[in-house]
Amino acid sequence: MKIIYIHGFLSTSNAQKAQILRRELKDYSDIEFQSVDYPDDLEYSIESLSEIIKKDLKAGVKPFLIGSSLGGFLSIILSVRFDLKIALINPCLYPSAWIKKMGYIGKTLTNFDSGESFEVRPEAVAYVEQLEKELTSYRKDKTMVLLQTGDEVLDYRYSLEFFKDIDVDVEKGGSHRYDNFESKIGKILKFFEEN
User: Fold this and answer.
1) Buried b (16+ CB within 10 A) or exposed e, 69-101
2) Which of 43, 108, 117, 134 could serve as a FRET partner for 195 with CA atoms 20 to 30 Å apart?
């Protein structure tokens, strides 16, 4: 089994949940774990991640994805396009609306982990709006969603409503980072192993 972790906005492959997964999965000899980076500029992120998936598929490996926040959105798009099983942690479903709400268009932002800066271009946001049309095609049988009600960045009720057709794991309290993430790894692995 191969598991790929897709981090959130302004983060990197060394994000906290990636470190937790790396630590918790190291004793599983049958699991290959990879945490990946993608461009901060959202116009190039899905293509970059798609190349990683295509390379795995060409090698006969069908990866499972764990996506957090923006990584959750990207995981849904990749799942739709490549028929992959995904686990979403406090996912950001409509990033374009969130970016507009935060007033980020035209601003220069800095990645928390890498320290690299980039401009949030209107073209990139328009591109994301096109991608968002694919969200409603998400595969109910291939999607697991973990939410915490204490998410201070995204209103968990939005995801709860969007995923009303599947059994969503909602935990009281917590945060956008998803507190006690370690406690959910076994449940995620069980979901990935189910046919």
Assistant:
1) bbbbbbbbbbbbebebbbbbbbbbbbbbebbee
2) 134
Backbone angles phi, psi at 182, to 5 degrees: -55, -35
| Structural contact between residues 33 and 22, judged by C-beta atoms closer than 8 angstroms | yes
Helices (H), the chain: 16-25, 42-58, 70-82, 95-101, 122-131, 156-162, 185-193
Q: What are phi and psi of 128, to 5 degrees?
A: -65, -40
Cβ count within 10 A of residue 137: 11
CA distance 155 to 174: 12
Global pTM reads 0.95
Q: 18-22 — which CB contacts under 8 Å span 24+ positions?
A: 20/181, 20/182, 20/185, 21/66, 21/185
Contacts of 70 (CB under 8 A, 6+ apart): 7, 8, 9, 92, 95
The tokens describing 49, both together, are: 């991640």
